[in-house]
Structures are given as structure tokens and as C-alpha cells.
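Project channel, design review

CF: Before we commit to the Litoribacillus peritrichatus constructs, I'd like one complete example in the thread so the newer folks can see what an input/output pair looks like. Taking ABC transporter substrate-binding protein.
RD: sounds good, go ahead.
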Amino acid sequence: MTELDPPAQYYSESGELTGFGIEIVQEIQTLVGNSDPISVVPWARAYHMIETEDNVVLFLMARNQLRNEKFKWVGPVLEFSFGLYAKEDSEISSLSEPEARNLKSIGVYRNDVRDQILTQMGFENLKRVGDKLQNVKMLMTNRIDAYASSSLSYGIDASEAGYKESDLKLVMTFQTIQAYIAMSLNVPDHVVASWNSALKSMIDDGTYIKILKKYYPTANLPTKAITEFD
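CF: and here is what came back for ABC transporter substrate-binding protein:
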């Protein structure tokens, strides 16, 4: 399963499901001989399913302390940072964590990892929405002070909401993130290992970097997997 989150996963003009995550997973499936179909499911429902059901694969998922022991992991397949973004013409500039806590409201995508991280950090000024583009629209109409996004997707969020990347600015980075393909705990270890081996072969032969640069021209290969969290 996956969610729509361009350019990682989206429908092309011809109606084909495509994107970075789709191409990575489909290439791995080819290498390991798996032909299971990919379903597009809203994130909250998909996350509940991988927590409660057997033999579920969900991508792309940020790995953190809250999730680390709940799933098995293939990757990392992508690395980026999470931050708070404000309007370019906002008086808000570089924020410390205490200053961010004092903002009137910060928009987050409900049950998304950014919601979880900021909640765990003790932020009590979060305004949760069920559509991530609503965050941008609320920001641009001054209904929130900032919203949580990633270094790879905030410009896409802005464009899809009818604005430009330059309309937004980063005011605080709060975590570096690695994204993975997550699997239910009951998935056999040898299956997880075969998927990781296939991903490594894609990195070694250049297939991975070709797909990465196609969708994220400024992104680099992920660093060593972070498997322990404070």
C-alpha cells in the first residue's frame, strides 16, 4: 500500500500510478519475483492496517522512535529533513524551538510522522487537518503561522495548492528523516532480507540513483541506516 504524495507516488496524466516510491518498489518486486498489486490507501487507514494486519507492506514510511519496533524495514530509500515553513513575507524568520512553541498555530497533516514528532516534542499548538494541501492554503490566508513539511515536498505542496515554492520559507528544521518501505512484523525475515538485498543491488548498479534524480534532482543517496533513537 501507499498514499498519494507526489513526486513519490501519484497518478500521471494518463492515469498510471507512478513516482519515485512506485518505481523503487516495482523494481524491487521484479528482482525478488513479487507481483502483488500496489493499492492507494489514505495514510491513517493504511497505517492502522500495517499495525493490525499480517503481510502488509506500506511505503514510504519515515522511521522514528515511535515506529522502530512496530515494523520491519527495507531501506532507507530516501533521506530528507522536516521543518516548519512560513509565508515568505511573514515577520517570522529563524525560530528556536521555544519560539516555535509560542506560535499561535502550526499546521500538521493528521497522524503523519510530523504530527507524531511534534506531538512527542510537546508541541500543544498543532492544528491538524486531513488534507496536507489545506495546510498551505491556511498558511497563505493567515489562518496558521507555519506548517510542518519536508525539504523535498514543501515546494510541491505549494504548487499543488496554487502557489509557488518561493511563497514559502524555512523557519526551523526539527529532524533529519530517513524513509523506508515498512513491513508488518509477521513478514518473514528472509523476505525482508531479499528486499533489502534487491535495493542494495539497485544502488550498486546505478538503477537507484537514476530513479532518485528523476524525481528528486537535488537529493543524495541516503546515509547509513539509523536504527537506534534517543
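RD: helpful, thanks. The first helix runs from residue 20 to 32.
CF: The chain has a mean pLDDT of 95.
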